[in-house]
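tool=predict chain=A
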Amino acid sequence: MKLGLLDFGVRSPDMNSLAIIEDLLDYAIAADDLGYSRFWLAEHHNFDPLAAWLNPEVLLPIIAGATDRIRIGAGGIILANHSPYRIAYTFKLLNNLYNDRIDLGIAKGYSSRNINSSSSELRITQSKEIIETKLHENIKSLLNYLYHEDELLKEEIIIPPFKANLPEIWSLTGSYRNFESLAKQGLNISRSVFHFGSDISYHKDQLAEYKELFYTFNGRMPKVSLAFSGACSKDGKKAKKNFEHYSYGFTTDNIVGCPALFHDRLSEYEQNYGINEFIFMNVALKPEDRMEGISLIASTMKIKN
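tool=predict ok
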């Protein structure tokens, strides 16, 4: 079993933005030492005076430079808001600067804030269909920049380093909808069971079908992970308090308690969902509680990156 971490940048209200980033670096270094497989940062454009980042791209090379083995990535980039050319270039170059351990997660949705010149059309009044169309167009363009270097060369377009290793590309989703399209595009899947609206049914048959299709189209097996939220403490009491104090609302399917509970629930997830890699969204707000939680889980699960 592999276990990674997802971070939204939410911390105790007595910490300012720079203090959160300092804690983030300590947290990532500890995760690397403890054997966690991935360290992902989300992109959000919510109004929050204490926000440490909106788009995590600038933080990825800092964290990658401070760690040795753990994969670093965006979980994920809100691609409808960004230039596919720029994202392809940024993540490809980072992946080759940091020993082939950069992940590019693609998230649905959009920001209604005018964060760049190309996003002015993406207003909150636009329909869901328009936003989804923009996302699909940008995914197609992004994959074209990454997968078709020889064809692009004829058009005098190069995404450097030429013919170099590509980042792992993940689709972040709450279900297995459109899995045939994802398989054709060669996208790995990270499925969330903690966001509102996430499908928490197991769907092992659908997952098996996706894997078969993926192999047929790409000649290799996909990577699949399950993202969950929760909190861990030695006796479970502090974990419950930490979860109650977290301001974001999640589904009821969380793991909140002692390390033994994490071991049992993740073992159940592995069996029932047919997935052996998990991404943990730790809701503890205090740095010492977050560190305690991931240390206890790593020791109990005996994970390795």
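The CA atoms of residues 203 and 275 lie 11 Å apart. Residues 117-125 have pLDDT under 50 and may be disordered.
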